[in-house]
Amino acid sequence: MSSIETDRAEPAFDHDIVVVGGGPAGCAAGVFTARCDLDTVIFDRGRSSIQRCAYLENYLGFPAGIDVETLYGLMHDHAEEAGCEIVPDLVESLECVDDGEGFVVTPQEGEPVTARRVIAATRYDGEYMRGLDDETAMFETHEHDGEEHEHFDKGYAESDGTTPVDDLFIASPYGETGYQAIMAAGHGTRVGITVVEDVRRERGYPEPVANHFDWMRRETELDDEWRDRDRWREQFDDRLPEDHDLQTERLAAIREREIDRRLETYLADDEIERRIERGHERLLEHIDDDLIVEAAREIETERESGET
């Protein structure tokens, strides 16, 4: 996990990020924010729209498909491993705090909490967001069977999840992203990265260096040139806009932290092997024990046959 913090003061909010909804979109967004050391809580009422599916046969990575219960468990396990807290509760309302920065999140059963940013990742009607903006902008009216019905406007947010309400992001699987679970996960990822980059800007990163990626690479890819921190400093400075207003000390702190983050993404061979083994072990936790035992017996039989 890497940090995007720069001289961070004591938090004024209970959480950096609250995600409303623990389906593919919400968990994907939470994984990316939590991995960047943002305190992330996911409220999940346990009735994600994905649970309407009888069985998933097109979610990448599962050649014979995956049952919804197992996929849900894997998603939540991944989010928690990344650092998210998952709260099994329904969010009833969001309100802006008195000074207009951040939100008060009121769940159905627990105590209200405050959050610096909120990611809405549910498909339910958006009633909990009423009052955050002009309702004619956030909701639209449709006529059905002679009666008028009001629904959350699926086009309210931009494609990257940003909205007219500061610090409110929409990762809900609406419109073009709403028909397949894997599309919802992809949209949640995009919104999660949008939020991370928004935080980086707030913490002083100038626009050209605020972009963020999250991947691991082999240490062997680092040649002598890129093992030198001065080369990274040169690259960072080359990307800075000439009109940035960062003081020298502040700029140096951001630069060095960013170089640390970049270098941490390169893994030695033994660390790669350790992570591969641990990743496989974690997957086994979600597989039926009887199937594991049966597979182990088959493997042992094949080995014995090969020895004779």
Give the arrangement of secondary structure elements:
Layout lengths: L14 E6 L3 H11 L5 E4 L24 H15 L2 E3 L3 E6 L6 E5 L5 E8 L14 H4 E6 L2 E6 L15 E3 L10 H22 L14 E2 L10 H11 L8 H17 L1 E2 L1 H16 L4 H19 L1
Parallel strand pairs: 1-2, 1-6, 2-3, 6-9, 10-11
Antiparallel strand pairs: 4-5, 5-6, 7-8
Helix pairs in contact: 1-2, 1-4
GO molecular function: oxidoreductase activity
Cofactor: FAD
InterPro entries: FAD/NAD-bd_sf, Ferredoxin-NADP_redctase_2, MnmG_N
Q: Care to describe what's here?
A:
The chain is an alpha/beta fold. It has 3 domains: 188 residues, FAD/NAD(P)-binding domain (3-Layer(bba) Sandwich), CATH 3.50.50; 61 residues, no CATH class; 39 residues. The chain is built from 8 helices and 11 strands. The strands form 3 sheets. Strands 1, 2, 3, 4, 5, 6 and 9 form a 7-stranded mixed β-sheet that branches. A two-stranded antiparallel sheet has the order 7-8. Helix 1 packs parallel to helix 4. The longest helix is centred in the middle third of the chain and has 22 residues. The mean pLDDT is 90.
